[in-house]
Amino acid sequence: MKGPLFYSKILLFGEYGIIKDSKGLSIPYNFYNGALKVDENLSDISKKSNENLRKFAAYLEELQENNPELVHFDLESLRADIERGMYFDSSIPQGYGVGSSGALVAAIYDKYATDKITVLENLTRDKLLKLKKIFGEMESFFHGKSSGLDPLNSYLSIPILINSKENIEPAGIPSQTENGTGAVFLLDSGITGETGPMVSIFMENMKQEPFRKMLKEQFVKHTDSCVEDFLKGDVKSLFSNVKKLSHVVLDNFKPMIPAQFHKLWKKGIETNDYYLKLCGSGGGGYILGFTEDIEKARKALKGYNLEVVYNF
Ligand SMILES: Nc1ncnc2c1ncn2[C@@H]1O[C@H](COP(=O)(O)OP(=O)(O)O)[C@@H](O)[C@H]1O
Ligand SMILES: C[C@@](O)(CCOP(=O)(O)O)CC(=O)O
């Protein structure tokens, strides 16, 4: 048995901010995917995945008991399938900021939620919000507080715009310019990050007034501008705002940037060859880059692995 594919995602803008109330924009990233699969002979990796599913199933049982009005699962089938050797067969790297847990959550909801909202129905704003809430609760098993956006993106396989906590919608993003020199790219940091501890650091920082002020007056402000510019296709303004965002992140989200990338991050801002930002929670995994000239960026980042995900 092999279930439908669920894709990775890239949160172009909005990491951390969307836990509070910033705008956010995420797009599916079809390069990686995963599907539920049942096999009798499990490799070590599949066995680990199977064990993870077992723990997740116990969590879902609790979730359902505590939130009977939110969501119901066919837990008997889920448990039986796990006993038969079900695992999440996925090429999505874990702890890389491209939503490995989100795709897993989407796959489990799709297969085992009994009263599920399907992708085929007319997705009203209320239904989208309900789905996001369910996914947020489900995904928090993997990394504490979750906005639910990753699984939502994976489940629907369309770009999603978060206007605010209570206002989300499918987004039309400007079509890519073929042969355009501007690009969004993934930079592989070569180490994995862990979302849970990063989100905890953020929540701890949020207890301090100066950090909250910085978040509201700079981080969220620049994030919101980037989202608006990107959707409008205003590339010039976008780069000016991404630069500001890159700067604020370097100054205030240091634990989320692997130490060996601090210099490279700064160099981008100083030379204007590229601007780096967090891709998801950070702490490792991918770093997201924006450049007006991909060849220049490749030269400046020689020796690093760049994957272009969008062309301007
Ligand atoms: N194929 C898989 N099988 C079982 N669990 C998985 C699988 N992929 C991801 N996970 C779970 O999701 C966690 C990673 O999710 P997360 O910390 O949100 O990082 P990210 O979403 O950035 O990859 C893993 O530690 C693991 O618990
Ligand atoms: C930090 C956060 O805003 C994005 C996390 O993304 P990821 O789990 O690193 O892919 C958390 C969330 O919104 O669930």
Counting structural domains, the number is 2
Rg, Cα atoms, Å: 19 Å
Number of strands: 9
Ions, cofactors and other ligands present here are:
adenosine-5'-diphosphate, (3R)-3-hydroxy-3-methyl-5-(phosphonooxy)pentanoic acid
Largest sheet: 5 strands, antiparallel
SSE string: EEHHEHHHEEEHHHHEEHE
Shape: globular
Secondary structure category: alpha+beta
CATH class of the largest domain: Alpha Beta
End-to-end distance: 40 Å
The parts where pLDDT drops under 50 for at least 5 residues are none
Question: What is the CATH topology classification name of the largest domain?
Answer: Ribosomal Protein S5, domain 2
Number of helices in the DSSP assignment: 10
Keywords: ATP-binding, Kinase, Nucleotide-binding, Transferase
InterPro entries: GHMP_kinase_C_sf, GHMP_kinase_N_dom, Ribosomal_Su5_D2-typ_SF, Ribsml_uS5_D2-typ_fold_subgr
Enzyme class: transferase
EC number: 2.7.1.36
